[in-house]
Amino acid sequence: MKKFLTAICIIFFLTSLNSEQLTKYNASWTSVITGKPISNPISTSYGFIIPTDAKNIVAVSTSGNILWDNPITKWSTSIILSSVQNDFFTLVSSKGTELSLYNPSGIEIWKTKTPFIVTRKTFEGRDGRFFINNEKNISCYGMNGICKWSIETPLQKNIDFQTLQDGSIVVFLEKLKEGKTQALRISPFGEILEEITFAGEITNSKTCSEGILLNFSDGNAGLFSILNGRATNRWVLTKANNFTTSSFFVVCSENNQVAFVQKLSSGTKISTINPKNGNIINSFSIENIKNLDKIVFTSKGFFISDSKTFLFYNNEVKEICNANTNENANILYTYISPDNVLHFLYKDWSINAYKIIQTSLQNVKNREKLTYNSFYDFTPSYLLSSGIAPIDEKFRNEEATTILKKGFYGTNEKELTSLTISTCKEYISTTKTSTSNYRQAPSVFVSDFIGLNNMISTLTLYGTNLYPYYIAELLSQENNPLLIKTLLTSISNNGYDPNEEIIKSIEILINSKTNKNDSILTSICDAIYSICAFMGRPAFNEYGKNLLSKLLYPPYSSNTRNYARETLSKIKKLNI
Hints:
Layout: H1 2-15, E1 20-21, E2 29-32, E3 42-43, E4 47-52, E5 56-61, E6 66-71, E7 80-83, E8 89-93, E9 98-102, E10 108-113, E11 123-124, E12 130-133, E13 137-141, E14 147-152, E15 162-163, E16 169-177, E17 180-186, E18 192-197, E19 202-208, E20 211-216, E21 221-227, E22 230-237, E23 247-251, E24 258-264, E25 267-273, E26 280-286, E27 294-298, E28 301-305, E29 309-314, E30 319-324, E31 331-336, E32 341-346, E33 350-355, H2 393-396, H3 399-406, H4 412-432, H5 444-447, H6 449-457, H7 468-477, H8 481-493, H9 501-512, H10 518-535, H11 537-550, H12 558-573
Parallel strand pairs: 1-30
Antiparallel strand pairs: 2-33, 3-4, 4-5, 5-6, 7-8, 8-9, 9-10, 11-12, 12-13, 13-14, 15-16, 16-17, 17-18, 19-20, 20-21, 21-22, 23-24, 24-25, 25-26, 27-28, 28-29, 29-30, 31-32, 32-33
């Protein structure tokens, strides 16, 4: 009977345009966490995470189930929790002096001292790298915990970093120049590309697919973009068009649509904007939201609220939901998830969730992947495979390995990445054509095995999304057991595999070449353990458990079977 009544409430809520009172009795689901929330939830692909005053972080699914509840060491009320790619998150603790990375299962992967006291949220890069900062410093880290670079800047304005189309970062500065905001355009490698002076004082900013949307103190707004390698103004919305100083942009993260929001004395006005030229596509006003508290733009429409009223308009500007609550005194945080569910997080540790519109989360992996490729040159020279040129000396003498392990390599990463990827591409091409009867000259990949082996061993040291593809390709194509062993050893030191490419190639490896080689098979176990420990429960449930279980039986040797069994026990102790 209870389930039936709940269903009736949900259907009424979704279809009624009359003002509906939101209570725990007509919630789509309710849940209770083990502490009082101390910040807004952070969205994940499975729901959200939330820190509480019980010195823990709780993961909640889209249906309200508690997925995990993990304590945090060195807790303080000043912790900074931030999301990075693929449901990983960072935690800044110990009064801003320690940085930790946690996997999607809430397990701490590494912890390191920061070069300065961190005071702001982590800024997510495009390829797995991320940036930490305070008012005068910026550092960049890879997913392996190695600091790539750290620089000082003039005093920064308290506005989030934004990103231009090529991936360069714009950092806004506090000091005005003749009443105009200044900024630094910084590459992913820590080099200052440009010093920028804008047309006025900036009050707000937002990244979109075409560049950076800006709001100015005089009421004007516009788009700042890259043109011919330089940053420039693209279009302007002037105050003459009846725009006010209380305005800002919102961007739909799912499809990069842009809207311009104005707070007016008569209510709230929303205009959808073409980000390419600034033309207004459509506008509508909401008179009963005069003190706008929150607006979220999703692929299905707009969620708008003040302290008591909650509205949802679809893309045809039709009011789908009009609801209110009298419990706002007990609500600590209001959260609207990407799948259009309204959540109230209460002081008494409870959560009430209300479905606004029937929808589902879009698959993030299918969206266009943004990269830093414009900063690199990945073109193979084909001089290596023809024997004309040697493998770069930095790989042959292990200088690259030393640089990457030490960290703080800055712009050296750009050169090393270009060298590494172009060499990988050329070598992979060689392995695919090695059965040909025609060869112009002996390949340097044959004559300089040490250089090739050293280069391959560096692939996991960068800590970015760029390398798992090449590691997987090499594992799938390679026949030399020594190089296979090198690849597996490097994976065991860093199991970052965001798109499941490496573990899929390990599955191919098990099924094809290695059922007699105990040394490689035990290295495979170590690599699987490393991937599961790094990537968390999904990697183990989808791949790791089955692959290791396969090694428990003949035709594998007793040594391999025992090692696989021990590896399964080790993973179990991780509590992922």
